[in-house]
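If you are new to this repository, start here. Below is one unmodified record pulled from the training split, so you can see the exact layout before writing a loader.
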Amino acid sequence: MDFLEHKGFLSRDAVEIQPSTNPAVVGSTVTLSLSPSVTLTGGNWALEDTFILTWLGEQQAVFPGYSGRASVNVTSGALTLSALSVTDSGLYQVHSADPLLKASVSLTVVEPISNVTLRVNRSDLIEHQASGLINCSVSTGSSLSFRWRNGSSEVTAADRVQFTDGNSSLNIVSVSRYDSGPFRCEVFNPISNGTSDSVNFTVSYGPDNMRLTVNGLNTAAFSAGSNLSMLCLAESNPPAQLQWGFRGNLVNATGTMLELFHVRADQSGPYSCLAFNNCTNLYSYITTYITISRSERLQGNVFLLPLLLLAGFFLSLLGR
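And here is the target side for that same chain:
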């Protein structure tokens, strides 16, 4: 770079300071050199408003706080600073009287990242009734940036997803069953990066989205003498307690399967599966009407039967 020199004066834009590395690592050494090179008879270095050292000819004096780790090349004016710490970040300035010049540069000193860990406020949550909070921290590291992942997908801010404390905390408002995780935190700075182990939320939900099939078919009409296998499924965590009912009365059958062998015509009617989740305290039910041979359809309001079944279901739970 060409520069202007007249009667011992260098234009302030003619000389730049070039760090040997930037950003620099905590504990390392950096040299701040002038470019293009110039011969100086004296001057001083400062970090912001704090003097580091001054020199004149062959003599130099280092100010308190920099003793033993700061030195200057008395000819070129290059500053060498060792045992760097994060507090050494900032704007470095050099001044010289002969020739007259002033230059500055911003230096960043960064601490490597280590031991990225996650902490959750609580791991057992009920869907739509609680929020999940995860805090990400490091044992060492500076100038940190944070990125969150749920499985392989990046977590971004949304109506229910909030980032706080410089993105180091993730808050999921009114968790759903799809917010269980696994969540990981990725932390990075200009010189290093780290990733936490994963954490999961246990989200209790349901029962809902119930399904009831008979012999794996969509039809509900069968011949007398058939064997029937009724399968009841519900989306629920933990798994729902299932109870079966027939014509508004509970029957002595629990679990996902109700089996009937060699059915008769008088076994036609509404069959119900009732589900209860003892963590969410929610219930659900599903009813199907099964016709066997040509027996006359059962009279009465089928829609009232699940209510009668629910009352009996809860009485049976209380009696356990």
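Two things worth knowing about this chain: The chain has three domains: 6-110, 114-200, 205-318. The two ends are 90 Å apart (CA to CA).
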